[in-house]
Specification:
The protein is built from three helices and nine strands. The chain has helices at 22-29, 76-96, 148-153, and strands at 3-10, 15-19, 37-45, 57-64, 69-73, 103-112, 125-131, 142-145, 159-167. The longest helix is centred in the middle third of the chain and has 21 residues, at 76-96.
Protein backbone atom coordinates (compact mmCIF):
# COMPACT_ATOMS: atom_id res chain seq x y z
CA UNK A 1 0.00 0.00 0.00
CA UNK A 2 1.04 3.55 -0.68
CA UNK A 3 1.83 5.86 2.25
CA UNK A 4 1.67 9.63 2.58
CA UNK A 5 4.86 11.60 2.01
CA UNK A 6 4.26 14.60 4.27
CA UNK A 7 5.79 18.03 3.70
CA UNK A 8 7.21 20.10 6.57
CA UNK A 9 8.55 23.65 6.69
CA UNK A 10 11.08 25.21 9.07
CA UNK A 11 10.68 28.97 9.45
CA UNK A 12 14.05 29.10 11.20
CA UNK A 13 15.84 27.59 8.18
CA UNK A 14 13.34 28.74 5.54
CA UNK A 15 13.55 25.17 4.18
CA UNK A 16 11.10 22.46 3.12
CA UNK A 17 11.47 18.75 3.93
CA UNK A 18 9.44 15.62 3.17
CA UNK A 19 9.10 12.51 5.31
CA UNK A 20 7.43 9.20 4.47
CA UNK A 21 8.01 6.97 7.48
CA UNK A 22 5.57 7.09 10.41
CA UNK A 23 8.43 7.30 12.95
CA UNK A 24 10.09 10.28 11.27
CA UNK A 25 6.75 12.04 10.74
CA UNK A 26 5.89 11.55 14.41
CA UNK A 27 9.32 12.84 15.51
CA UNK A 28 8.85 15.99 13.43
CA UNK A 29 5.28 16.47 14.65
CA UNK A 30 6.55 16.31 18.26
CA UNK A 31 9.21 18.97 17.56
CA UNK A 32 12.03 16.47 18.00
CA UNK A 33 14.11 17.99 15.18
CA UNK A 34 13.54 21.72 15.56
CA UNK A 35 10.71 23.96 14.44
CA UNK A 36 9.40 21.81 11.56
CA UNK A 37 5.65 22.19 10.97
CA UNK A 38 3.36 20.44 8.49
CA UNK A 39 2.44 22.57 5.48
CA UNK A 40 -0.65 20.55 4.61
CA UNK A 41 0.99 19.39 1.36
CA UNK A 42 1.56 15.70 0.69
CA UNK A 43 1.78 13.06 -1.99
CA UNK A 44 1.84 9.26 -1.95
CA UNK A 45 4.64 6.75 -2.47
CA UNK A 46 5.75 3.34 -1.18
CA UNK A 47 8.10 2.70 1.73
CA UNK A 48 9.29 -0.67 0.44
CA UNK A 49 10.09 -1.96 -3.02
CA UNK A 50 7.92 -5.00 -2.30
CA UNK A 51 4.88 -2.70 -1.94
CA UNK A 52 5.62 -0.66 -5.06
CA UNK A 53 4.41 -1.55 -8.55
CA UNK A 54 6.87 -2.89 -11.10
CA UNK A 55 8.99 -0.10 -12.53
CA UNK A 56 8.86 2.12 -9.44
CA UNK A 57 12.22 3.72 -8.65
CA UNK A 58 14.06 4.14 -5.38
CA UNK A 59 14.17 7.78 -4.29
CA UNK A 60 17.65 8.53 -2.94
CA UNK A 61 17.91 10.83 0.07
CA UNK A 62 20.99 12.98 0.64
CA UNK A 63 21.89 15.40 3.41
CA UNK A 64 24.42 18.25 3.30
CA UNK A 65 25.78 19.80 6.49
CA UNK A 66 26.77 22.98 4.65
CA UNK A 67 23.27 24.17 3.76
CA UNK A 68 21.68 21.95 6.48
CA UNK A 69 19.32 20.56 3.87
CA UNK A 70 18.07 17.31 2.38
CA UNK A 71 17.84 16.45 -1.30
CA UNK A 72 15.76 13.71 -2.92
CA UNK A 73 16.01 12.25 -6.38
CA UNK A 74 14.25 9.42 -8.14
CA UNK A 75 16.66 9.67 -11.07
CA UNK A 76 19.13 6.77 -11.05
CA UNK A 77 21.62 8.91 -12.98
CA UNK A 78 21.34 11.85 -10.58
CA UNK A 79 21.68 9.54 -7.57
CA UNK A 80 24.76 7.81 -9.03
CA UNK A 81 26.34 11.16 -9.92
CA UNK A 82 25.85 12.53 -6.39
CA UNK A 83 27.23 9.35 -4.81
CA UNK A 84 30.33 9.57 -7.02
CA UNK A 85 30.69 13.28 -6.23
CA UNK A 86 30.33 12.49 -2.51
CA UNK A 87 33.20 9.99 -2.61
CA UNK A 88 35.42 12.47 -4.46
CA UNK A 89 34.56 15.41 -2.18
CA UNK A 90 34.96 13.33 1.00
CA UNK A 91 38.43 12.29 -0.14
CA UNK A 92 39.37 15.89 -0.99
CA UNK A 93 38.07 17.22 2.34
CA UNK A 94 39.92 14.49 4.23
CA UNK A 95 43.17 15.26 2.38
CA UNK A 96 42.82 18.92 3.44
CA UNK A 97 41.94 17.92 7.01
CA UNK A 98 38.51 19.55 6.68
CA UNK A 99 35.03 18.26 7.39
CA UNK A 100 32.91 17.11 4.48
CA UNK A 101 29.96 19.50 4.05
CA UNK A 102 28.53 18.26 0.74
CA UNK A 103 25.68 15.93 -0.20
CA UNK A 104 26.04 12.64 1.66
CA UNK A 105 23.87 9.67 0.74
CA UNK A 106 21.59 8.60 3.60
CA UNK A 107 19.30 5.90 2.19
CA UNK A 108 16.39 5.14 -0.09
CA UNK A 109 13.68 7.40 1.35
CA UNK A 110 10.78 5.73 -0.47
CA UNK A 111 9.82 4.29 -3.86
CA UNK A 112 7.96 6.27 -6.53
CA UNK A 113 6.73 6.00 -10.08
CA UNK A 114 8.78 8.14 -12.44
CA UNK A 115 7.57 10.37 -15.25
CA UNK A 116 8.43 9.48 -18.82
CA UNK A 117 8.94 12.55 -21.02
CA UNK A 118 7.35 14.63 -18.25
CA UNK A 119 4.17 12.51 -18.02
CA UNK A 120 3.14 10.19 -15.20
CA UNK A 121 1.74 6.71 -15.80
CA UNK A 122 -2.03 6.19 -15.76
CA UNK A 123 -3.45 6.51 -12.26
CA UNK A 124 -0.52 8.59 -10.97
CA UNK A 125 -0.20 12.36 -10.69
CA UNK A 126 2.84 14.64 -11.05
CA UNK A 127 5.05 15.73 -8.18
CA UNK A 128 6.92 18.87 -9.14
CA UNK A 129 10.39 19.84 -7.89
CA UNK A 130 11.49 23.43 -7.34
CA UNK A 131 14.91 24.71 -6.27
CA UNK A 132 15.64 27.89 -4.30
CA UNK A 133 18.84 28.49 -6.33
CA UNK A 134 20.88 29.42 -3.26
CA UNK A 135 23.93 27.17 -3.62
CA UNK A 136 26.26 30.16 -3.71
CA UNK A 137 24.90 31.25 -0.31
CA UNK A 138 25.34 27.67 1.06
CA UNK A 139 21.54 27.54 1.56
CA UNK A 140 20.28 25.04 -1.06
CA UNK A 141 16.78 23.63 -0.65
CA UNK A 142 14.33 21.80 -2.88
CA UNK A 143 10.57 21.57 -2.56
CA UNK A 144 8.37 18.75 -3.85
CA UNK A 145 4.74 19.61 -4.62
CA UNK A 146 1.80 17.60 -5.96
CA UNK A 147 -0.39 20.72 -6.08
CA UNK A 148 -0.07 22.65 -9.38
CA UNK A 149 -1.34 25.86 -7.73
CA UNK A 150 1.39 25.53 -5.09
CA UNK A 151 3.92 25.02 -7.87
CA UNK A 152 2.72 28.20 -9.59
CA UNK A 153 3.05 30.17 -6.34
CA UNK A 154 6.70 29.09 -6.05
CA UNK A 155 7.61 30.67 -9.39
CA UNK A 156 8.84 33.82 -7.65
CA UNK A 157 12.40 33.20 -6.49
CA UNK A 158 12.46 29.43 -7.09
CA UNK A 159 13.53 27.51 -10.22
CA UNK A 160 10.90 25.11 -11.55
CA UNK A 161 12.56 21.76 -12.23
CA UNK A 162 9.38 20.22 -13.68
CA UNK A 163 7.73 16.90 -12.91
CA UNK A 164 10.26 14.88 -10.96
CA UNK A 165 8.21 12.08 -9.38
CA UNK A 166 4.71 10.68 -9.68
CA UNK A 167 2.34 10.37 -6.73
CA UNK A 168 0.70 7.00 -6.26
CA UNK A 169 -3.01 7.20 -6.95
Amino acid sequence: PAVPVVEFYSALLDHYFVAAGADEISLLDRGGQGDWKRTGQRFSAWLRQSDAPPGASPVCRFYAFGPNSHFYTGSAQECAYLRTLEAQQRAEASARGEPFLGWGYEATAFWAAMPVSGACPAGASPVFRAYNNRAMQMDSNHRFMADAAQRDSMSFGWLDEGTHLCSAG
